[in-house]
Amino acid sequence: MFTLSSCDATKEQDVTPVALDGTWQLIGYQGAAGKLEQNTENINENPIIAFKQGDYGGSTLHNAYTGSYTLINSQYLVLTTPVSTLTTESQWGVKFLESLPQAENYNIDNQLLYMTLKGGEVRMVFQKMK
Q1: Reduced to 3 DSSP states, what percent helix, strand and coil does the chain have, rounded to the nearest 5?
Q2: What CATH class is the domain 22-128?
Q3: Distance between CA atoms of 79 and 108, rounded to whole angstroms?
Q4: Contact 115, 126 (CB under 8 A)
Q5: What distance separates the 2 farthest-apart alpha carbons in the chain?
Q6: Per residue of the chain (130 residues), what is the pLDDT tens digit?
Q7: What is residue 113's three-state secondary structure?
Q8: Could you tell me if 25 and 35 are in contact, meaning their C-beta atoms sit under 8 angstroms apart?
Q9: Cβ neighbours of residue 100 closer than 8 Å, sequence gap 6 or more
Q10: Which 3 state secondary structure label does DSSP give 24?
Q11: What InterPro entries is this protein classified in (predicted)?
């Protein structure tokens, strides 16, 4: 007598990391209630950030900055404190530069990059630049 049996093997799915590489422009900060806080003083002041192979950098209206980053499990993000030029910075630029090392995780949806800050209450919202 032959006995045939089969097992219901669960196929492992490959998880492809979402591409963080590229250039992004800050749109604003989104709180837990979903309201977007934007820079109303000078729309041209929205900082730019570019990610490439473990390094990041960009500019605010007044300064250039650079740092490095690590991706963990394609979702978690660790950014070093940025090093920047030493020109006087606007309040919006200071908030941006101080927020970067507070990033905990990220996701990308419809050409928007969301970087959630420590505590999970606020996230930075960026738009992909062409």
Answers
A1: 10, 40, 45
A2: mainly beta
A3: 17
A4: yes
A5: 85
A6: 444 343 444 444 443 445 789 999 999 999 988 899 998 877 778 999 999 999 999 999 889 999 999 998 878 999 999 999 988 888 999 999 999 999 999 999 999 999 999 998 999 999 999 7
A7: strand
A8: no
A9: 49, 56, 67, 79, 81, 82
A10: strand
A11: DUF306_Meta_HslJ (IPR005184), HslJ-like_sf (IPR038670)
The 3-state secondary structure of 52-84, one letter per residue: ECCEEEEECCCCEEEEEEEEECCCEEEECCCEE
Q: Which two tokens stand for residue 8?
A: 């219901």
Q: Would you kindly state where each structural domain of the chain is located, as residue ranges?
A: 22-128
pTM of the full predicted structure? 0.81
With b for 16 or more beta-carbon neighbours within 10 A and e for fewer, the 115-127 pattern comes to bbbeeeebbbbbe
